[in-house]
Every structure is written in structure tokens, then in C-alpha cells.
Specification:
Radius of gyration: 58 Å
Low-confidence stretches: 1-13, 27-61, 66-94
Shape: elongated
Distance between the termini: 131 Å
Length: 511
């Protein structure tokens, strides 16, 4: 609009300038004609013409101001109308048909907006009412093991889940392996079904959705299938897998060092097979959490895996030298002699890898009749009484001296309550099953093997390892006896006979 006003102003100024120029031309002509008139008349003439010109200019100004006001008023009115109705003003006359068309379009748009808002409002009310009906209920399409629990409240849901649980308990797990079948009811494998947790998770999944997502879930009735969170009872599973393993496992055979007299040989190990316990556990867990659990029993084809030796034959070939030996005598041909020979045979060719600990009780036990032991005299509270396994302590005492000669310190050792006659005081080692054990650890960098011979009343026990195991030191145990007390020391000597090692081993007190 400012542009139009300026245009009108320019036209008015142009008219005014034209009239002024014409008047000036007239004045110039009169001056030329009246050159002969006196200066006084000339001045009077000019004053009159200037007054006339000033009056004319003032009138032109008033006219222009009036035109300007009219133009501004016209444009202000048109602008207000245009702003109100959203109509553009051009330099020409406003098209009335265009204005009417714009008004109709504006009215139609307003009506459409009103209708749209009404639809949205009514839809929101409907969505809200629909969702509110399921505030404490399960949404349509919610299933557990394909069982519908839709439109139910909490107590109804838990009741339904309890029925599902009872149906599951009657199902079986069938395990097939090595042409054998093991059947067990699910209730004998399960510790928890977690019905409450499942209900809480379903409600949580519903509540986390916004109102429109909830409405879509309700309206669509799309199926969502859940399972119970069934937990396996670890103890029951272990009992089951131990039963199966006992039937099907074939233990591997570790490589061995075999010593006959002064000859040493090596026997390779053999692979075995064993139950894949981890796979069985996972298969059972997957089966009892399957959505088909209510429809059929669980059938599992258990697997066997290779059981390879843990010891390398190459490591055993490092054993090439007899490190130490010790011999005692016993009476043969009686129950005690039989027990000595039985215990000695049980530790023959026993292998200890570096850092491995030896337990005498574990090696020869249990000391019971079914394990080859007989009744013979034993020391109990300083007295000889008849007991199962009498004589086994002579084997442990003989091994104790062999161990000390090999420069190895015991990790557990107790003397007898009464001194024995087959080793010096302070150099015996007793065994009381479940109470007192005799132990030592292989402190070498190499494997070691125990070799025993019990023949004709003579018991010899040797320790074999690598020729560098002792690092050139010869070890010798010495017991210093004073009355009923014996203090045992272990000394070590180099190749020149110099003492390079000394250690107090134990103090033994006898009755």
C-alpha cells in the first residue's frame, strides 16, 4: 500500500511542478516585453506575480494533501478488509467475485476443522472408555501355552495358571541314549513354576504401552503367547545325570609309567566317552519351557562326548630315574601281611603330576572288608587291638621315609600313639580313616611315580622322576630321640658331601 501512496504523491508533485514552470515562463516573457518599463514598475509587477504564484502553490499543496488523505484512507480500508479475509490487494480495482470465493473457501475450511475436531474428540473418548475396561484385566489374545487367559482378573489368571501347572507336572521327560530310555516326570525335575512372576510380567507389558497402543492391542486381538518361568531343581537333575552317567560313561585310560625292577616303560592312554551333561541340562530346560509342553511329552536324545586322557605320554617320558627308595620287613602269610600287600599294590605305579597332592587314605581306602582288607592287630590309644586293616600303617611309614629321601616335605603327617618296630621313632606315619591322613605334594618340576614291591615279607617303595629332579642334592632324614620324644630333621648334601639343606620336619611324642 505504501508503494501506491507514493505513486499518487509523485503524480501530484509532477502536476504542481508543471504549473509552476508555466507561470515562470509567463513571467520571463513579461520581463522581456517590459524591459522598457521603469525599475520601480518592474519591481511592483514582480511582487504581484510572486504573490499570485504563492497563492497558486498553496492551493496546490492543499489539493495534494487532500488527495493524499483520500488515497491513504482508501488503502487503509482495503488493507483492513484484505487482512480480515486473507485477500490480496492489487493496483487495480478489487474483484468482488474473488472476495466472495475466498469467503466461501474460508467458511468451508472452518467447517471441516470443526468436523475433524469433533471426530477426534469422540474417538478419544471411545479409546479411553475401551482401554479403561481392561485396567485390571488381561488384554484379548493373551495365551499361556496356547491356553486363553484373556479378560481375566488377577485371581482368575492365577487359578488358570495353577491348572496349567498341574497339567505340566504330569508330563514326562524321556531321555534316550545308548539304546536305553530314562523316564522321569516333570514334577520330579522342577523346583519352581513362578506363576506370580508371569502374571506380573504380563501386566507390566500391558501397562508400559501408551493409550493408543493399548487400544490397538485390545481391538486387534492379536495373539501373544507366554510360557511359565519353570526352574530346574539342580539336585534332582544331578541325581538323574549321575544315574545315566554311571550306566553309559566309559572312562578314559590315562597313560602309565610301568616299572619292573630297574626297567621303565610307558603305556599310552585311551579315549573314553561320557555323557554330555551340559547339553542334557540345556535340552531339558528348553523342553520344559517349550510352548508345546501341554501337548506332548519331552523327548531328548542325549549325547556322548569324547573323554580324552588329561596326561600327555610325552610328559611321562620325562620320568627316567629312580630318585629314592626305602625298605621295611613284615610277617607274611597272615592277615596283617595280607593287608600290607593289599595296600602296597593300591599305590603301585601311582602317578603325581607337578603340584598334585597325594592322600594315602584316598589312595588305599576305604579300609573295609569289601576292599580286600582283613582283621589284624592295630594300635588304638597306645594298645594293640584287633581291627580291620591292621598293617596298612607300615606301608604309609615306609612311603614316608621314601618321600623324605626324595627331599619332599609332608603336608600332613601324624605319628602313632605307640612306637612301632619297623621304622625308627619320629619316622612313622599313621592312618585313622576319617580322622588322620598322611599327605604330601609333588614339589618337582617333573611328574613322579610311586613303585612298590611287597614280596616274601619284604616291602620296598621307590619314587621315580627325572634325573634332574633333585638338582644334585642327596637328602637324608634323621630323628633325634630323647625319651618318648623324637625330633626329625631333613638334611641335604651336595656331591662333595657338603650340607646345603637343613629343615626341622616334626616332633613326635609317644606313650
Amino acid at each position: 500500500m505504501d508503494k501506491d501512496i507514493k505513486s499518487h504523491k509523485d503524480e501530484a508533485n509532477e502536476e504542481k511542478n508543471t504549473e509552476t514552470n508555466e507561470k515562470n515562463n509567463l513571467i520571463d516573457k513579461d520581463i522581456e516585453k517590459g524591459s522598457e518599463i521603469s525599475n520601480e514598475d518592474k519591481d511592483n509587477k514582480i511582487d504581484k506575480e510572486n504573490q499570485t504564484l504563492d497563492i497558486s502553490i498553496d492551493k496546490d499543496k492543499e489539493c495534494n494533501e487532500s488527495k493524499k488523505e483520500n488515497i491513504e484512507y482508501e488503502f487503509e480500508n482495503n488493507e483492513d478488509l484484505a487482512d480480515k479475509e486473507g485477500i490480496d490487494i492489487n493496483e487495480d480495482t478489487i474483484d468482488k467475485h474473488q472476495i466472495e470465493s475466498k469467503f466461501k473457501l474460508k467458511k468451508k475450511t472452518r467447517n471441516l476443522i470443526i468436523v475433524g475436531c469433533t471426530i477426534i474428540l469422540l474417538s478419544s473418548i471411545y479409546v479411553g472408555k475401551t482401554v479403561s475396561k481392561y485396567e485390571n484385566k488381561i488384554f484379548p489374545g493373551t495365551l499361556v501355552y496356547e491356553q486363553d487367559i484373556s479378560n481375566l482378573e488377577k485371581e482368575e489368571v492365577l487359578s488358570k495358571l495353577n491348572k496349567i501347572e498341574k497339567n505340566i507336572e504330569d508330563k514326562k521327560v524321556q531321555i534316550n541314549i545308548n539304546n536305553k530310555i530314562y523316564d522321569i516326570q516333570i514334577k520330579n525335575l522342577v523346583s519352581k513354576y513362578n506363576n506370580d512372576k508371569l502374571y506380573e510380567d504380563i501386566i507390566k507389558n500391558q501397562s508400559e504401552k501408551n493409550i493408543f497402543s493399548k487400544f490397538i492391542s485390545i481391538a486387534s486381538k492379536k495373539n501373544t503367547n507366554y510360557n511359565l518361568y519353570i526352574e530346574i531343581d539342580e539336585k534332582k537333575f544331578n541325581d538323574l545325570k549321575d544315574e545315566i552317567a554311571q550306566d553309559v560313561n566309559i572312562e578314559c585310560i590315562e597313560p602309565k609309567v610301568i616299572i619292573n625292577d630297574e626297567k621303565i616303560s610307558y603305556k599310552k592312554g585311551e579315549d573314553g566317552s561320557k555323557l554330555d551333561e551340559e547339553a542334557l541340562y540345556n535340552d531339558i530346560k528348553e523342553g520344559i519351557n517349550s510352548r508345546n509342553l501341554l501337548k506332548e511329552n519331552i523327548i531328548i536324545n542325549a549325547k556322548l562326548i569324547k573323554d580324552s586322557p588329561k596326561i600327555s605320554i610325552d610328559d611321562l617320558k620325562l620320568i627316567n630315574h629312580k630318585v629314592s627308595t626305602y625298605t621295611t620287613t613284615y610277617g607274611s602269610g597272615n592277615s596283617r601281611g595280607s593287608n600290607v600287600e593289599n595296600a602296597a599294590n593300591k599305590i603301585d605305579d601311582l602317578l603325581l603330576m607337578p603340584g598334585e597332592e597325594f592322600s594315602y587314605e584316598n589312595a588305599i581306602g576305604p579300609v573295609i572288608a569289601s576292599n580286600g582288607y582283613k582283621y589284624a592287630p592295630v594300635i588304638s590309644n597306645g594298645k594293640l587291638v584287633d581291627g580291620i586293616g591292621g598293617g596298612v600303617c607300615q606301608v604309609s611309614s615306609t612311603l614316608y621315609n621314601t618321600q623324605l629321601n626324595a627331599g619332599i616335605i609332608p603336608t600332613e603327617r601324624r605319628n602313632h600313639s605307640k612306637a612301632v618296630n619297623y621304622v625308627p621313632r619320629g619316622l612313622d606315619a599313621t592312618l585313622a580313616s576319617g580322622i588322620i591322613d598322611y599327605k604330601f605334594k609333588n614339589t618337582y618340576e617333573y611328574p613322579l611315580v610311586i613303585n612298590t614291591k611287597a614280596v616274601n615279607g619284604k616291602l620296598t617303595i621307590e619314587i621315580w622322576s627325572n634325573e634332574d629332579a633333585l638338582k644334585g642334592i642327596e637328602y637324608k632324614p634323621v630323628s633325634y630321640v630323647s625319651g618318648n620324644v623324637a625330633n626329625t630333621y631333613l638334611y641335604g648334601y651336595d656331591k662333595d658331601g657338603n650340607k646345603v639343606y637343613e629343615k626341622h620336619i616334626d616332633t613326635s611324642v609317644y606313650r
